[in-house]
Amino acid sequence: MGKQATEMLKGVLEGIVLAILATRPAYGYEITAQLREQGFTDIAEGTVYALLVRVEQRDLVDVEKVPSEKGPPRKVYTLNARGRDQLSEFWRNWSFLADRIEQLHKGEK
């Protein structure tokens, strides 16, 4: 992924992670793995963990510590009502921007 794509991704990564959590609860590594499966191979685990700290601080997720077979307990993140509202707002904004960008793109041809 080039620098421009990386910068664009930074702006929408929170919405993408919230969308992942809307499907099911997950812990940080699972979220990172799912992002990579979706083709976001350049995203560092540290970036995802920092984002999870921010969404937890903003009360967009509920967190449960679950025992792990390897090492310390895992934090499992579940999207809560406030997080679902934030995700809905993200999709509204995404649709607005995507429509405008597509109009610009079509006008360019």
TrEMBL record:
One Pfam family cited in the UniProt record for this chain: PadR
Domain of life according to the entry: Bacteria
Transcription regulator PadR N-terminal domain location: 17-88
Name this polypeptide is given: PadR family transcripitonal regulator
